[in-house]
């Protein structure tokens, strides 16, 4: 294979030849330019291929006919080959990206570009410290010079600031190198074999600090931000990717020289850089500068990961560091390239990207990749990194990194949402398809493919776990078909999937079947309502199936990673589904932020959990391990965020209300149950291995208060979907409380309620979807009297709310009866009392729901309203039918549920015929049904007989002093219906939790704004930062 | 030689001080140049061993014993490269300064903070 020295030789030769060729013809010099970059890529590609094919070990290439240390030598191992290939490939692609620019600019641009790549290659290859200094100088001088490819006041002044900083850095580096030579007698990294502990420390310290400055660590990076903001997009790419990578690799090479206490501090600086630059990024409105903040943050993360993975086995280390590296490389390159295509500075102006579909998808891919979502490399790296940090007890680093990551997700997704949903007029300047777009698409595809490669080859995930992604891709390919065809295909696919899981995978535990019914059968019936879509609904079914298949994967996950992967895929799908809603910007952002925060809690929680034994599903595997308390708390919190428990529920009403009508029912009835499923898994592990501290007692209280507050909040809503959302929150509170009891009866009632809630909440949401479809409003006070127009919807709502409220004869009564029995049996009397009160409150909102929508006078504007479309009616009546059957014959359900719970607890209910006996009495659902029917039928006959005597009141025969009120709806009782209760609640009615989260958000932004003031724009201030940094870090280390 | 070593450090500090205290871009560049010269002097002083010969192997030096007779040649070799690089850096800085002055007719570094935060 070609000697890697040619990487340098070819580039240097090109530097001399290019001016001559350029005299002949510009095309010739451009071709040579690309040829050189291509040659670099091919050479490194061959080496990479060679290293993969055979274990060549680490090769050394000497120069000038001497061997090291007498001569400078290059070292090439698989690691070097990998990094070289990556940066040369990006160099080649960015070179192509910049071709047009180079064609128009002086030749110097091309030569400088080649020099940047050469400097980076040399820096990575060389083992000689002084040679490294030379390559670093070549790298920085040519980088700074190439900034002037775009000559504006800003780019020149930022280039000068860069020059000052890099000048100081090079002084430090040079002094450090010379002192290392003075102390150790060698310049070759392989031959320096003394410890730099005592006063000699200063030598390696200076080299390290120089590299940290060049790596743009916080706070010595103000100049870098200016450069990112002002220079050409292609140049920003090579600074962010090629330049930084080479320097990070150099740091990796000098790491063995550094004492461990300093390494630790540098690691913290890296993590802190990640946190701070993402925090400061929150306030950015300029896209390029935001990318600059993000780039700097990613470099911090890379540095931290290089340092803190030092003790790991090489493959894992490559997974982590290489994962972060590739993720940054691809996502940042792509985003910088797009920024060059957009040619707009403000974040909100990026909406022009919507004029080019494939560019928009790529933008999404880069954002998701950068935020660490599966299947991209960053996801795996983050997972393994957190795990290894936990093993090393580095809690501080985890906190810094996850918090930084959260901030990054916030601004990235705010940007994403703003871009895909913001105001956009078609006639705005649009992005024409061009070579650059194709290049970007290629890069995004590469990133995606790499992620899948890791997933399949490193982790060996089977088909079922890739199914969510595959289904998204597959449906994207057939997206041109009408919605109905795709809907029916999805339904068929889902049916086969369910059958496949049931017969072939074979559930280990009947609880999986119960949740399988909730997740898959529930989704299937809900899918019917989506058949009402008449337009093509691009993207909808892909995302929907991705979400549903992720639910399935959650059921059968056998390891923490499988579970977490499916969880994140579910989050992606559900986020994008919510985002489809017309005004869902804020709602989807909140959903994303809370989901990510929950996911990070889970990630750490899983990290603390002991390894599972065997390869059975989590529901079995978790029973045999003892989860530490911290793990239980973190996992439970993570799951409760997804279920919308009190305190972290603020995303829930927004997301439910703003999602498309037929999506809301999926979110409420099924997605919330995913949180319950996770919560249950944690609880199962606690049954036999309870922690010392009875944490579930407090979780029980949390559930109880969720139920109460949810019920109150539901009562005060004007928006029907928000009302139902809060109602879901309340119901989830019951379920959480019941699971937290950790008793047989408690779990039976939790299972029962979970299934019930799925059915009645689906029916209610679909009914409201139908009403919304006809009336185009969600405000209940704008409706009324729809009973005559939409009788079928009315009946389904009526039955559902009877089922919710827990009055006889429907299934809700059974679940309430079981629940109160279990609370009393467990001795949680006070909790039972609060829940009872919450049930009473829930009558308020249920009454409001049916009264204001269906009863009273019909509004004039609704005079032509018809019954909801049949696609909405069918699923409602499937659910209603199921509720009726299960209410009449409750034992059909109670028996298997009791069996499920008695795997973990001694059963204390007896089922005999139609009777269910607990220690506190018995319940005969069948008898109750018959009696209640009788009670209803008698007055019904009475009414029918005497109906003629009723006097009908005409609409609007109420007049205020001869005037009609301007908006009659708001003077109606239906508007602000429970104002008096709200008043009675006094201070308790205020949205404190809202205020808390808003306050937190504002605080974070203020902090970000405060810190970024250190970047005053003055080059001299930046110099001062560097000097202070040098001194302060040194004393911290000593 | 300890005296030149100290001299080198003094020059380095003078240069850094100038870079931090002077507002004029040209003076800042001069500061950098002084600091850089300081570094070069430090490098040379580290290699110099009192009472020894120049590292040229001719008839005046006993080849077998040369290691003990000549000064360390490597720092001298390094400093040449360092000087060249320093020159390139200074030149590029001056180009930037000229280019900036062409646009705003000012050498004050305070006038170039359009980009911040």
Helix content of chain A: over 70%
Helical segment count of chain A: 40
Q: What is the oligomer described by this structure?
A: heterodimer
Low-confidence stretches of chain A: none
Query: Any idea what the shape of chain A is?
Result: elongated
Tally of individual helices of chain B: 4
As a percent range, the share of strand residues of chain A is under 5%
Low-confidence stretches of chain B: none
Give the CATH topology of chain B: Helix Hairpins
CATH level 1 name of chain B = Mainly Alpha
The secondary-structure element order of chain B is HHHH
Q: Tell me the domain tally of chain B.
A: 1
For the report, how would you describe the main beta sheet of chain B? none
Strand content of chain B: under 5%
List keywords for this structure.
heterodimer; A: 1038 residues; mainly alpha; 3-stranded antiparallel beta sheet; two-stranded antiparallel ribbon; 40 helices; 5 strands; elongated; B: 117 residues; Helix Hairpins; 4 helices
Compact overview of the structure:
Helix content of chain A is 72%, strand content 2%. Chain A is mainly α. In chain A, helix 1 (5-24) runs antiparallel to helix 2 (26-53), helix 5 packs antiparallel against helix 6 (129-147) and helix 20 packs antiparallel against helix 21 (540-556).
Give a verbal description of the structure.
The complex is a heterodimer of chains A (1038) and B (117). With 1038 residues, chain A is an all-alpha fold. Helix content of chain A is 72%, strand content 2%. Chain A has a 3-stranded antiparallel sheet. In chain A, helix 28 packs antiparallel against helix 29 (720-740) and helix 29 (720-740) runs antiparallel to helix 30 (744-775). The model of chain A has no long low-confidence stretch (mean pLDDT 90). Chain B is mainly α and 117 residues long. Chain B has a single domain (2-53, 65-111), classed as Helix Hairpins (Orthogonal Bundle), CATH 1.10.287. Helices cover 68% and strands 0% of the residues of chain B. Chain B is built from 4 helices and no strands. Chain B has helices at residues 2-21, 25-47, 66-69, 73-104. The chains are: A mainly alpha (1038), B mainly alpha (117).
């Amino acid at each position: 294979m070609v000697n890697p020295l040619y990487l340098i030789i070819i580039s240097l030769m090109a530097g001399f030849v290019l001016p001559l060729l350029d005299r002949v013809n510009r095309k010739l010099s451009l071709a040579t330019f690309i040829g050189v970059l291509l040659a670099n890529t091919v050479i490194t590609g061959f080496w990479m291929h060679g290293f993969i094919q055979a274990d060549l070990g680490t090769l050394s290439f000497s120069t000038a006919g001497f061997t090291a240390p007498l001569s400078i030598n290059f070292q090439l191992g698989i690691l070097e080959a990998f990094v070289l290939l990556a940066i040369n490939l990006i160099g080649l692609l960015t070179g192509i990206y910049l071709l047009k620019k180079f064609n128009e600019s002086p030749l110097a641009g091309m030569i400088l570009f080649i020099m940047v790549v050469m400097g980076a290659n040399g820096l990575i290859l060389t083992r000689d410290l002084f040679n490294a200094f030379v390559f670093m100088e070549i790298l920085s001088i040519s980088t700074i010079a190439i900034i002037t490819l775009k000559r504006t006041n800003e780019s020149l002044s930022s280039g000068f600031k860069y020059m000052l900083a890099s000048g100081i850095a090079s002084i430090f580096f040079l002094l450090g190198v010379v002192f290392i030579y003075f102390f150790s007698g060698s310049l070759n990294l392989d031959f320096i074999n003394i410890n730099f502990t005592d006063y000699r420390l200063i030598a390696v310290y200076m080299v390290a600090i120089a590299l940290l400055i060049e790596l743009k660590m916080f706070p010595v990076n103000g100049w870098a931000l200016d450069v990112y903001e002002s220079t050409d997009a292609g140049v920003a790419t090579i600074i962010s990717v090629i330049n930084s990578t080479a320097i990070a690799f150099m740091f990796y090479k000098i790491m063995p020289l550094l004492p461990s206490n300093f390494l630790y501090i540098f690691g913290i600086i890296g993590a802190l850089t990640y946190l701070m630059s993402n925090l400061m990024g929150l306030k950015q409105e300029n896209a390029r500068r935001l990318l600059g903040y993000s780039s700097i943050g990613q470099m911090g993360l890379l540095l931290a990961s290089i340092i803190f993975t030092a003790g790991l086995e090489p493959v894992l280390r490559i997974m982590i560091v290489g994962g972060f590296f590739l993720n940054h490389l691809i996502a940042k390159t792509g985003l910088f390239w797009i920024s060059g295509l957009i040619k707009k500075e403000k974040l909100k102006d990026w909406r022009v990207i919507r004029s080019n579909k494939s560019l928009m998808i790529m933008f999404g891919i880069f954002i998701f990749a950068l935020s660490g979502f599966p299947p991209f490399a960053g996801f795996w790296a983050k997972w393994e990194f957190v795990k290894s940090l936990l093993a090393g007890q580095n809690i501080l680093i985890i906190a810094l990194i996850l918090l930084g990551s959260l901030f990054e997700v916030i601004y990235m997704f705010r940007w994403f949402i703003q871009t895909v949903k913001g105001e956009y007029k078609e006639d705005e300047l649009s992005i024409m398809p061009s070579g650059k777009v194709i290049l970007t698409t290629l890069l995004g595809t590469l990133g995606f493919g790499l992620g899948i490669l890791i997933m399949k080859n490193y982790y060996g995930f089977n088909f079922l776990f890739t199914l969510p992604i595959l289904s998204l891709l597959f449906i994207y390919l057939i997206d041109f078909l009408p919605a109905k065809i795709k809907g029916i295909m999805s339904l068929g696919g889902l049916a086969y999937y369910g059958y496949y899981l049931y017969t072939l995978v074979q559930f280990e535990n009947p609880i999986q079947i119960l949740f399988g019914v909730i997740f898959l059968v529930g989704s299937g019936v809900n899918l019917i309502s989506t058949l009402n879509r008449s337009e093509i609904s691009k993207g909808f079914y892909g995302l929907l199936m991705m979400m549903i298949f992720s639910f399935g994967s959650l059921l059968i996950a056998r390891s923490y990673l499988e579970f977490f992967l499916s969880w994140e895929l579910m989050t992606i799908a559900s986020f994008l589904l919510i985002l489809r809603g017309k005004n869902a910007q804020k709602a989807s952002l909140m959903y994303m932020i809370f989901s990510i925060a929950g996911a990070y809690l889970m990630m750490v929680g899983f990290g603390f959990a002991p390894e599972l034994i065997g390869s059975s599903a989590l529901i079995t595997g978790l029973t045999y391990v003892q989860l530490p308390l911290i793990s239980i708390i973190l996992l439970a919190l993570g799951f409760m965020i997804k279920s919308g428990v009190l305190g972290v529920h603020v995303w829930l009403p927004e997301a439910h209300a703003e999602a498309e009508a037929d999506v809301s029912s999926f979110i409420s009835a099924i997605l919330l149950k995913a949180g319950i499923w996770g919560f249950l898994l944690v609880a199962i592990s606690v049954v036999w291995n309870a922690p010392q501290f009875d944490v579930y007692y407090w979780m029980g209280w949390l559930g109880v208060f969720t139920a109460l507050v949810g019920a109150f909040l539901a009562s005060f809503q004007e928006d029907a979907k928000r009302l139902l959302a809060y109602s879901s929150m309340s119901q989830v509170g019951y379920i959480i409380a019941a699971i937290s009891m950790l008793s047989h009866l408690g779990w039976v009632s939790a299972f029962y309620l979970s299934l019930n809630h799925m059915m009645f909440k689906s029916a209610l949401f679909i009914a409201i979807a139908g009403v919304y479809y006809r009336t185009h409003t969600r405000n209940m006070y704008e409706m009324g009297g729809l009973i005559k127009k939409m009788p079928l919807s009315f009946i389904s709502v009526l039955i559902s709310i009877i089922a919710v409220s827990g009055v006889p004869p429907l299934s809700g009564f059974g679940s309430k009866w079981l629940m109160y029995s279990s609370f009393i049996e467990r001795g949680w009397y006070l909790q039972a009392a609060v829940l009872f009160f919450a049930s009473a409150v829930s009558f308020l909102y249920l009454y409001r729901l049916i009264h204001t929508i269906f009863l009273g006078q019909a509004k004039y504007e609704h005079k032509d309203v018809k019954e909801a479309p049949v696609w909405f009616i069918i699923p409602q009546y499937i659910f209603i039918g199921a509720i009726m059957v299960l209410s009449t014959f409750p034992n059909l359900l109670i028996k298997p549920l009791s069996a499920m719970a008695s795997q973990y607890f001694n059963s204390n209910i007896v089922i005999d015929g139609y009777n269910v006996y607990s220690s506190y009495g018995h319940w005969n659902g069948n008898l109750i049904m018959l009696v209640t029917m009788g009670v209803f039928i008698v007055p019904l006959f009475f009414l029918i007989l005497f109906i003629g005597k009723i006097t009908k009141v005409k609409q609007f025969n109420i007049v205020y002093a001869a005037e009609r009120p301007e908006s009659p709806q708001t003077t109606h009782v239906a508007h602000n219906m429970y104002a008096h209760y709200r008043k009675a609640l006094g201070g308790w009615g205020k949205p404190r939790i809202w205020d808390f989260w808003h306050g937190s958000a504002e605080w974070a932004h203020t902090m970000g704004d405060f810190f970024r003031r250190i970047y005053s724009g003055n080059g001299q201030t930046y110099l001062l930062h560097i000097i202070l940094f040098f001194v302060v870090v040194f004393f911290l280390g000593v | 030689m300890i005296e030149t070593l100290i001299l080198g450090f003094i020059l380095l500090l003078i240069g850094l001080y100038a870079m931090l205290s002077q507002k004029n871009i040209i003076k800042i560049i001069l500061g950098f140049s002084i600091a850089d010269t300081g570094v070069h002097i430090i490098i040379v002083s580290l290699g110099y061993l009192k009472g020894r010969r120049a590292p040229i192997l001719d008839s005046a030096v006993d080849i077998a014993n040369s290691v003990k007779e000549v000064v360390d040649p490597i720092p001298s070799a390094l400093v040449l490269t360092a000087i060249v690089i320093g020159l390139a850096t200074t030149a590029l800085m001056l180009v930037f300064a000229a280019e900036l002055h062409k646009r705003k007719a000012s050498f004050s570094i305070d006038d170039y903070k359009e980009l911040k935060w």
